[in-house]
Design a protein that fits this description.
Number of helices: 10
Strand content: 35-45%
Distance between the termini: 29 Å
Number of domains: 3
Radius of gyration: 25 Å
Number of strands: 29
Shape: elongated
Length: 512
């Protein structure tokens, strides 16, 4: 189904949005450094930092440090220098690094940042983070928007379980003033400098915490750099090694040598998935998560839990949910998150004019993602759902040779996420079955997630055929444990793919 057909019934005037950005990234490219911190003889952390006031000083995130091993920074993508911890400001999760005595001089051209801006940041205004995505060779930008939470402290932002973990280790402090972001920091952006539209430093990348497939992100206001400079502490906190709280902007790499060139080579090999881009959307691979990890932190796992309960309780099929893993892709321009089953691939299908999830197996199970970036501020969400539902009903009915689909009200609902973001999940069931190539009768389901904000609409649409005879057989057998499938191994693999396809579609969400 082509994207043009999906948006045919939206009947709205389109006005493209211009960012009107004044900030020139060339101004700060020689201020950035890549930071590699040895954790053990086989593992290192990768962060971003920035040169502060003199070429030998670097500011970055405290949580990326280690009590064992060495710290190196890479200036201007060409010169490694060993550094030491000069000052620590635990409350704000900041550390000041300094080039070790005896190291070669820092390259000419390095441009220290000398000041910062402490004025108010307007809600929904754009801010710009610069860092090394997953430790990539070159720095890239991340456009985020200032969010709203009152009061703007960690205590009021994060869930109870995360609040308890941070309170136990002592940093960042729960009463810390933060700048809450709409959008999430990419892996490797811990310690990244964040600027306003005028190019003024306003903060340091720090968060965020896991939230389903997405993250809760924040930055440390730049005013705390002054307290870092005034700190008399130069050692890591006593309980530093107990830090278990997951910072989603962290990156870890495998290393087998202290040689920085080898470290760099190993680091680059960890970035294996490619960026997928088309039609104003640009999806970066950001992390790999299990289904259990995402369900435990998700805002809305209702349909996933309901489907699992139905499989195990009514149909009596037990699947291995702990083994289900997903690669998470984030669109850095528009704030959309996709969860792709680990063994499948995200591509752009030119014929369908859509992002497609593919396994290379023709079994009728497909996921297509369609997006449009425009002004949706006056669009009625209910009318949008009705229009898209009508298109899907007629399109997939024709594609499968069916008379039509009926909406399953039990699995269909919508929620508001903030003042201008809405998500709907809609399940439709075919009016009759179809014959598969294996001779079995399949019931075809279409599951859809719809995101709408004032600036974009995004659809994830899955077709999921389920073999009716197999479901009846399982019930007659009084259940099937797919952890020990016996002769039904292929059937269990198919049903696992059914659940992963359903889950991947449901987990499409905003990146904030």
């Amino acid at each position: 189904m082509k994207k043009a057909a999906i948006f045919l019934l939206l009947y709205m005037s389109i006005s493209l949005i211009s960012n009107g950005q004044e900030f020139d990234p060339e101004q700060i490219k020689n201020s950035l450094v890549r930071v590699v911190v040895t954790v053990s003889d086989k593992e290192s952390k990768v962060l971003t930092g920035f040169v502060w006031k003199n070429p030998n000083q670097v500011v970055t995130s405290l949580h990326g440090m280690s009590k064992t091993g060495s710290i190196k920074v890479l200036y201007m993508n060409e010169a490694w220098r060993k550094v030491k911890i000069k000052k620590v400001f635990q409350k704000a999760d900041l550390v000041l690094l300094e080039v070790l005595p005896g190291e070669p001089a820092v390259p000419i051209g390095v441009a220290p940042i000398n000041n910062f801006h402490v004025g108010p940041i307007k809600w929904r205004s754009e801010v710009f983070a610069f860092g090394y995505n997953s430790g990539a060779k070159g720095a890239s930008s991340r456009i985020l928007k200032k969010g709203s939470i009152s009061p703007e402290t960690l205590d009021y932002l994060i869930p109870n379980k995360d609040r308890a973990a941070l309170a136990k280790i002592g940093f960042p402090a729960l009463d810390l003033n933060i700048l809450y972001l709409e959008g999430s920091l990419l892996p490797g952006f811990s310690g990244a400098p964040v600027f306003d539209a005028q190019g003024r430093l306003i903060g340091v990348g720090d968060g965020g915490l896991e939230k389903g497939a997405s993250n809760v992100s924040w930055i440390i206001p730049a005013k705390y750099i002054t307290e870092l400079e005034n700190s008399t502490v130069a050692t890591l906190p006593a309980n530093f090694e107990t830090l278990t709280q997951l910072f989603s902007a962290d990156v870890r790499i495998e290393t087998a040598s202290e040689n920085v060139e080898i470290v760099e080579e190993k680091l680059l090999k960890t970035t294996s998935a490619e960026v997928i881009e088309a039609d104003d959307f640009e999806f970066y691979p950001t992390k790999n998560r299990s289904l259990i990890e995402m369900v435990e932190t998700s805002d809305d796992p209702e349909n996933l839990m309901k489907f699992a309960d139905e499989l195990e309780g009514d149909i009596k099929i037990t699947l291995n949910y702990e083994a289900m893993r997903f690669n998470i892709f984030e669109d850095i321009n528009n704030g959309v998150i996709l969860a792709i089953p680990e063994e499948e691939y995200l591509i752009y299908n030119n014929e369908e004019e859509a992002f497609e999830v593919t396994s290379g197996i023709e079994d009728g199970m497909n996921i297509y993602h369609y997006g449009l970036k425009d002004d949706f501020s006056t669009t009625d969400f209910g009318e949008l759902l009705t229009a898209v539902g009508d298109i899907i009903n007629s399109n997939f009915a024709e594609r499968f040779g069916l008379s039509g689909f009926e909406i399953d009200e039990e699995y269909s609902y919508s929620l508001d996420f903030g003042p201008d973001r809405k998500i709907a999940w809609v399940l439709s069931t075919a009016n009759e079955g179809i014959k598969g190539q294996d001779g079995l009768t399949y019931v075809v389901y279409v599951y859809m997630t719809v995101l709408m904000s004032s600036e974009k609409t995004f659809f994830s649409i899955a077709t999921i055929p389920i073999p009716a005879e197999f479901i009846v057989l399982v019930q007659e057998m009084d259940g099937l444990d797919c952890n020990n499938p016996g002769i039904y191994g292929a059937h269990c693999e198919y049903m696992a793919k059914v659940f992963k396809t359903f889950s991947a579609t449901h987990l499409t969400t905003f990146s904030y």
